[in-house]
Design a protein that fits this description.
With about 500 residues, the chain is α+β, with helices and mostly antiparallel strands. The chain folds into 3 domains: about 5-200, PAS domain (Beta-Lactamase), CATH 3.30.450; about 260-340, Helix Hairpins (Orthogonal Bundle), CATH 1.10.287.130; about 350-500, Histidine kinase-like ATPase, C-terminal domain (Heat Shock Protein 90), CATH 3.30.565. It is built from 12 helices and 11 strands. The strands form 3 sheets. Strands 6-8-9-11-10 form a 5-stranded mixed beta sheet. The longest helix is centred in the first third of the chain and has 59 residues, at about 5-60. The model is unreliable at about 135-170, about 180-190 and about 460-465 (pLDDT under 50).
Length: about 500
């Protein structure tokens, strides 16, 4: 399975099936347990209700419990259990098994019980104790139970006569009791087809509800899987096109979650790849352009000398030497940048006063500034501003920045150099600023000012643009020292180049 959409859908389906199955099984077991409790206690409650109804009728007719022993035995014979009648205070009034009559007992030991009320007054308490057949497990009862009608056998005439004489005369007749008892169903019938149908319907409802919930959840899962997999699929398509060389591919950022962040990162990567590819093409074109000019001069002069059109004298050789020096410097600068970018540039650090080094660099450039009519000033926040640096590399940084400032400052302008100590977060560092009053740098050129061969002057004039590697070298050398470099400028208000160097304690 290669599709993430299919994998997510199947994962959702598995979770749904497991969850719904667990819920259905748990609910089914819980319902069966509750129903089992009902089946255990239901028949007993029904028997007690029947007994209470008949005993209440008996008490209403006779006004007392005398002679109730026969009635209790009659009731017990039809209920497959034992009935005990007490006065509610522990004294046994009658016992269908004739074992406890007249005794005082703990009523809580007799199991299920129901009170007999007459005119809102409790006149007795009837207890039901199931027989061994009735006390069998509920599942056995459920499996063996069948709907049946039990008609109690009528009492023999001698029993009827005895009981009529002991309080039943004018009361509830045994024929009436036979008629009342003969047509009601035994509590055993509680566990029958209806109950089975109830459990079956409950199970069906649970499974149908679970199936419906699973279908709805599956539909939502498919939609969620499609929503998740769609941006991933777009990323796959875009990355495949980038792999074939189409670096213009971008993906839509449709959310702010991890997938949205992935899309943003992908777009950033694609932009960087496109920019780097464009920079690579420009670099090749710039290198070819920078090498073509001195090579063309050399070839032209050499061909002229061979043809006898140009005399081979000291001045001609000096011109050729200047072009070779330009070529040598260009190659050296490119090698230096490559080493710095690869982290293989060797630095020979020594503890140096950066203010003194900056002043010496200004002194070297003072004649050129004076020749152009430019004021060159240098200030330092304090006398001793020491830092561990490679003196030759930082001299090169200062020379490149001052040369760039002289190149872009008109006659009558001013160049200011300053060195001060600042704190950047927890670190202490020295900051060097080189400001000029030239035309400034446009906002469009600022992001690329430290790129290789980049010139704000599109004419590529050597008098104003140099080789285009000076500021790129500055950036690499400063970063090799653990510092950073940046430029601040507004068109018409000059430019300020700044770089920092971290202070290292001896």
């Amino acid at each position: 399975m290669r599709s993430i959409h299919l994998k997510l859908t199947l994962s959702f389906l598995l979770v749904i099936v497991v969850a719904v199955g667990l819920v259905a099984v748990t609910a089914n077991l819980g319902a069966q347990g509750q129903f089992a409790t009902y089946l255990e206690r239901g028949p007993t409650i029904v028997r007690l209700d029947r007994a209470v109804a008949l005993l209440t009728s008996y008490y209403l007719r006779s006004g007392r419990w005398e002679g109730v022993q026969g009635v209790l035995e009659y009731l017990a014979s039809s209920q497959a259990g034992r009935l005990v009648l007490t006065d509610g205070k522990g004294r046994v009034l009658a016992d269908s098994s004739q074992e406890l009559a007249g005794r005082t007992i703990n009523e809580t030991s007799l199991g299920e019980a129901a009170a007999v009320f007459v005119d809102n007054r409790q006149v007795g308490m009837v207890h039901y104790l199931p027989s061994q057949e009735q006390a069998r497990p509920w599942w056995e009862s459920y499996g063996l139970a069948r709907r049946q009608t039990i008609t109690p056998e009528p009492l023999p005439p001698q029993a009827r006569g005895g009981m009529m004489g002991s309080g039943m005369t004018g009361g509830l007749s045994f024929e009436g009791m036979d008629q009342m008892m003969g047509n009601w169903q035994s509590p055993d019938s509680v566990v029958g087809t209806t109950e089975k149908d109830y459990l079956s319907g409950l199970n069906n409802s649970l499974w149908l509800g679970g199936l419906g919930a699973a279908l709805v959840a599956l539909a939502l899962g498919v939609l969620s899987a499609r929503r998740i997999s769609r941006p991933v699929r777009r990323l796959v398509e875009a990355s495949s096109r980038i792999a074939t060389g189409d670096l213009s591919q971008r993906v839509e950022v449709a959310s702010r979650d991890e997938l949205g962040q992935l899309a943003v990162s992908f777009n950033t990567m694609a932009e960087n790849l496109e920019r780097n590819e464009e920079a690579r093409r420009h670099l090749m074109a710039d290198i070819a352009h920078e090498l073509r000019t001195p090579l063309t001069v050399l070839r032209g002069n050499l061909e002229g000398m061979l043809d006898g059109l140009i005399p081979m004298n000291k001045d001609t050789v000096a011109t050729l030497q200047q072009e070779t020096q330009l070529l040598s410097r260009l190659v050296s600068d490119l090698q230096e940048i490559s080493l710095a970018e690869a982290g293989r540039l060797e630095l020979h650090r020594s503890r140096t006063d950066l203010a003194v080094l900056a002043r010496q660099s200004c002194d070297k450039m003072a004649p050129q500034a004076q020749e152009k009519g430019i004021a060159l000033n240098m200030t330092a926040a304090q006398d001793a501003l020491e830092v561990e640096i490679d003196v030759d590399r930082i001299n090169q940084v200062m020379a490149n920045l001052l040369s760039n400032a002289l190149r872009h400052t008109p006659s009558g302008g001013q160049i200011r150099v300053s060195v001060e100590q600042v704190r950047e977060g927890p670190s202490l560092c020295l900051i060097v600023s080189v400001s000029n009053t030239g035309p400034g740098i446009s906002r469009e050129d600022l992001p690329y000012i430290f790129d290789r061969f980049y010139r704000a002057d599109r004419s590529r004039s050597r008098s104003t643009g140099g080789t285009g590697l000076g500021l790129a070298i500055v950036k690499q050398l400063v970063e090799a020292h653990g510092g950073r470099v940046w430029v601040e400028s507004q068109p018409g208000h000059g430019a300020t180049f700044r770089f920092t160097l971290p202070v290292r304690q001896a």
